[in-house]
Write a structure and sequence with these properties.
Blueprint: E1 6-13, H1 20-34, E2 39-46, H2 47-53, H3 57-73, E3 82-85, H4 91-100, H5 105-109, H6 112-123, H7 134-148, E4 154-156, H8 162-178, H9 180-186, E5 194-196, H10 226-234, H11 253-261, H12 264-275, H13 280-306, H14 309-338, H15 347-353, E6 363-368, E7 374-379, E8 385-388, H16 395-408, H17 412-422, H18 425-428, H19 432-449
Parallel strand pairs: 1-2, 2-3, 4-5
Antiparallel strand pairs: 6-7, 7-8
The structure holds tryptophan (TRP).
Length: 450
């Protein structure tokens, strides 16, 4: 059997201009990871997410172009990975709605970004939801759709996104449970994604020494011309130590930036220069030279790419085609599972296909395992397992409980009590509707035969 490749997926919101922090913290490590052949990588431009923070259409478009050109210039190979624009995958907003309908409002109430907005409003004596769009509120559901639609295994993100991945798991799990019988019939379910935090990727300090971030307005844009880049670097804050005074590399912004670009040898030399009292101006110039040495060849490619938006557009559309070969059939099944179906696609059609006179019934079966214990299993007519019992020492105990379940039929409270005894905790979370329906059918059959 061929082993399924691990799917690694991440999105980039297209609301800004790429800066050095994005490059070191996300772009560079992601492109390095995409070259490992054992994984399938998915990188996409999250332009629908951009609308949540940015109401400037011109800026959303320009940012999408710049970010696409940046990833390509930095070496992303669209032949090797899935590289696409979120809004081209129309299955993403479709799935967003399917997921919205299984997502607890309370779950979204707990999202950090939403709570922060509410707290700010409360502190300012405003209405708690003042200025909060439903888009901001729904952000985690759209993100869950991004991830679940490709059944991604891993999502490399910054720490601020951990909660979003956890919510994607919750939402995916809820859908899996609610439509378990339908999904089993089609042999699919959502893969529950895991967050991956890159521990040894540097977080760059910005111009003011705080983390480089658009929200602090302290960034150094990635594609500054060399002169502007040098000027920007000369503006980084330092302490007031004079030339000749030894300087401490730990806690120095200049040193942290230098280290993010330099190899071990260069870093050691800079450490020595600090001990020898290098002047801040000289340290900054060395920093500029080191950064520019890495960026210059990429900048050349970037300039060529950004001048040809039509070429990038073509690449993105091709990427969308490749991605939709996955999402189209998958979302079709998910819609079906939720009941968005052709009117001609009815259970009656399936029953007609069974041999004349036989009605397809759920099954409740007792059996003995190689561990010598006794079990029973409840399955749909299609063979989807609804309930797997715990182990019983005697076949009588297993049989008695199975019979009691059938006698309970769709009396939910009796069934719930029996389930506590019948199944391990993890198995009770199965869709109650499906279990009740199966038991009711078995009870009706039993009464008819009695
Ligand atoms: N919310 C992410 C951020 O701001 C961007 C994003 C959107 C994303 N969809 C995603 C990241 C899916 C990972 C997976 O950084």
């Amino acid at each position: 059997m061929s082993q399924e490749k691990r799917r690694i997926l991440t999105g980039i919101t297209t609301s800004g201009t790429p800066h050095l922090g994005n490059y070191v913290g996300a772009i560079r490590p992601a492109i390095a990871a995409s070259r490992r052949a054992e994984a399938e990588s998915f990188y996409f431009l999250a332009d629908y997410h951009a609308l949540i923070k940015c109401g400037d259409p011109q800026r959303v478009q320009q940012s999408t172009l710049e970010i696409a050109a940046t990833w390509l210039a930095c070496g992303l190979d669209p032949e090797q990975v899935f590289f696409y624009r979120q809004s081209d995958i129309t299955e993403i907003p479709e799935l967003t709605w399917l997921l919205t309908c299984v997502t607890g409002k309370g779950l979204l109430n707990r999202a950090h970004a939403y709570k922060a907005a509410v707290d700010q409003n409360l502190a300012a004596n405003e209405d708690p939801d003042a200025g909060v769009t439903a888009g901001l509120y729904m952000y985690p559901v759209l993100m869950a759709a991004d991830i679940l639609v490709f059944n991604a295994h891993e999502v490399p993100v910054g720490r601020d996104q951990i909660q979003h991945i956890e919510m994607a798991r919750d939402i995916g799990q809820r859908f899996n449970h609610l439509y378990a019988a339908e999904l089993a019939r089609k042999g699919v379910s959502f893969t529950l994604p895991e967050v991956r935090i890159e521990e040894n990727v540097a977080t760059l300090p910005g111009l003011d020494g705080r983390k480089m971030s658009k929200s602090y307005n302290n960034t150094i844009p990635l594609w500054l011309r060399p002169k502007e880049l040098e000027k920007s670097i000369l503006g980084i804050v330092t302490d007031s130590r004079a030339p000749g005074e030894p300087k401490d590399p730990e806690g120095s912004n200049i040193f942290a930036l230098y280290q993010a670009f330099a190899n071990a040898e260069e870093t050691a030399a800079m450490r020595q220069a600090y001990a020898d009292g290098i002047a801040w101006g000289d340290a900054k110039r060395k920093l500029f030279e080191r950064i520019d040495a890495e960026l210059a060849p990429l900048r050349e490619r970037y300039d060529v790419l950004i001048a040809k938006p039509e070429r990038i557009e073509e690449l993105l559309l091709a990427g969308a085609d490749k991605a939709r070969a996955r999402t189209r059939p998958f979302v079709e099944i998910l819609r079906w599972a939720a009941g968005i179906r052709r009117l001609t696609d009815r259970p009656a059609t399936a029953a007609a296909a069974t041999p004349a006179g036989a009605t397809a019934l759920p099954q409740i079966k007792s059996y003995r395992e190689s561990d010598g214990k006794f079990y029973f299993k409840l399955a749909t007519a299609d063979g989807a397992v609804l309930l797997q019992s715990r182990a019983f020492d005697s076949p009588k105990d297993a049989g008695r409980l199975a019979a009691a379940l059938v006698d309970a039929g769709d009396d939910r409270s009796v069934v719930a009590g029996l389930l506590l005894d019948a199944a391990p905790a993890a198995e009770i979370a199965l869709p109650a509707d499906a279990i009740a329906a199966a038991l009711a059918a078995l009870k009706a059959d039993k009464l008819a035969k009695a």
